[in-house]
């Protein structure tokens, strides 16, 4: 008797919530290129978010559990009961809350295969307790995936996770989204002349992303002070009000534009002259790959998996994290040398086309899940067009 869709193995991806941030956007792209012989559901442990309707639109159900307190042991029981009822074959967790509650619940529910993806190489907010929890829960995992080889190496050597439990699957993006995007009208939307120099920083407004370092660099730039340069701060987050106050205190109100949450980030990226990524720690940022796919020159800090992608002076520029003077000097050079910037952007796009197609990332995840379930792996590469 042929297997029906309802009989197919269920893969549950657990994540904290669904804002338009890197890990969440990656998961959405993976679901667009998911394996057609498996079923998928998303479990949000804290809340839903702007991406929830997009998952549901492509046929991936989302269940929001709503953690009731920072320490919520009942959530483990609720998750385990739900997983047993769903008869999940694989649980795959993303980010700290899901990694902690989700892996424990999966094992209590008797889920046979449990994976976790580490999306950052280091989280400075994690103390000894958090790190010990990570190590302990890694033992509950069938495997732990680093989103770049650098993250995987950190898991093995810094965090002490057994080598045979760790593998690297590099992030990827849907390249077709960036092939013919136009930035026309963006400068007009923000009241800027068409010849105005424009840079952007993309990412949630969080200490990780280093926005304050960029603001300090802009203060010392003549173009920013004289009104010849504007900077789009694309994203939302917990530092929104603090960063707005900082902009005013530094006298940058005429330079810095907060766009808030946008659904047209590729269009904004297409409009800028350069993308700056002053992160203090990272895994392999999706915003970096998107900017490079758009053939934009990128100026980044040398953290996490970024140096594996950006070759200084070839397909982008690198500075040390927290080095405001170097950030300022190299940004000034980039804006003063548009031809060289164009060449960097072309090489950046070539890099992403060669290495970071999300179909390759999805194929690696599909292969991992199929191998764990004892299913054939010869059809794990998604078709050129993502699933609708």
Key features of this structure:
single chain, 388 residues, Rossmann fold, 7-stranded parallel β-sheet, 6-stranded parallel β-sheet, 40% helix
Overview of the structural elements:
With 388 residues, the chain is an alpha/beta fold. It folds into 2 domains: 185 residues, 3-Layer(aba) Sandwich (Rossmann fold), CATH 3.40.50; 180 residues, Glycogen Phosphorylase B (Rossmann fold). The chain is 40% helix and 16% strand. The chain has a 7-stranded parallel sheet with strand order 3-2-1-4-5-6-7, with helices on both faces. Helix 1 packs across helix 16, helix 3 packs across helix 4 and helix 8 crosses helix 14. The longest helix is centred in the C-terminal third of the chain and has 18 residues. The mean pLDDT is 92.
Structure summarized in a few sentences:
With 388 residues, the chain is α/β, with parallel strands linked by helices.
Count the helices. How many? Answer: 16
Number of domain units: 2
Overall pLDDT level: 92
Poorly predicted regions are none
CATH architecture of the largest domain: 3-Layer(aba) Sandwich
Order of helices and strands: EHEHEHEHEHEHEHEHHEHEHEHEHEHHH
CATH topology of the largest domain: Rossmann fold
Termini, distance in Å?
28 Å
* Rg calc: 21 Å
Largest sheet, spatial ordering of strands: 3-2-1-4-5-6-7
Total strand count, please?
13
Proportion of residues in extended strands: 15-25%
> How would a crystallographer describe the biggest sheet?
7 strands, parallel
Helix content: 40-55%
CATH class of the largest domain, anyone?
Answer: Alpha Beta
Structural classification? alpha/beta
């Amino acid at each position: 008797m042929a297997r029906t869709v309802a009989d197919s193995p269920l893969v549950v991806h657990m994540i904290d919530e669904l804002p338009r941030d890197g890990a969440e956007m990656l998961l959405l792209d993976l679901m667009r290129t998911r394996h057609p012989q498996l079923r998928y559901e998303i479990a949000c442990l804290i809340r839903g978010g702007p991406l929830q309707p997009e998952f549901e639109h492509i046929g991936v159900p989302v269940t929001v559990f709503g953690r009731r307190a920072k320490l919520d042991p009942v959530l483990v029981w609720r998750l385990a009961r739900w997983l047993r009822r769903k008869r999940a074959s694989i649980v795959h967790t993303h980010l700290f809350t899901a990694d902690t509650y989700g892996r424990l619940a999966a094992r209590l529910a008797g889920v046979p295969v449990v994976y976790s993806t580490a999306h950052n190489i280091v989280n400075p907010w994690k103390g000894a307790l958090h790190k010990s929890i990570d190590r302990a829960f890694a033992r509950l995992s069938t495997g732990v995936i680093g989103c770049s080889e650098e993250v995987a190496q950190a898991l093995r050597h810094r965090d002490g996770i057994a080598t045979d439990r760790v593998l690297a699957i590099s992030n990827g993006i849907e390249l077709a989204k960036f092939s013919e995007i136009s930035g026309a009208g963006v400068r007009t939307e923000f009241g800027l002349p068409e010849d105005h120099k424009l840079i952007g920083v993309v990412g949630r407004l969080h200490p990780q992303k280093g926005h304050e370092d960029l603001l300090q660099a802009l203060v010392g730039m003549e173009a920013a002070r004289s009104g010849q340069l504007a900077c789009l701060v694309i994203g939302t987050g917990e530092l929104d009000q603090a960063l707005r106050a900082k902009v005013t205190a530094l006298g940058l109100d005429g330079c810095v534009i907060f766009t808030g949450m946008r659904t047209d980030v590729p269009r904004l990226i297409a409009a800028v002259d350069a993308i700056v990524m002053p992160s203090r720690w990272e895994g392999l940022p999706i915003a970096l790959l998107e900017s490079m796919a758009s053939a934009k020159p990128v100026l980044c800090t040398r953290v996490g998996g970024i140096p594996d992608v950006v070759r200084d002076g070839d397909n982008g520029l690198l500075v040390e994290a927290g080095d405001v003077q170097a950030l300022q000097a190299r940004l000034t050079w980039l804006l003063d040398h548009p031809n060289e910037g164009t060449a960097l952007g072309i090489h950046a796009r070539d890099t992403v086309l060669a290495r970071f197609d999300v179909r390759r990332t999805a194929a690696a995840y599909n292969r991992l899940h199929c191998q764990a379930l004892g299913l054939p792996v010869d059809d794990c590469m998604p078709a050129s067009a993502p699933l609708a």
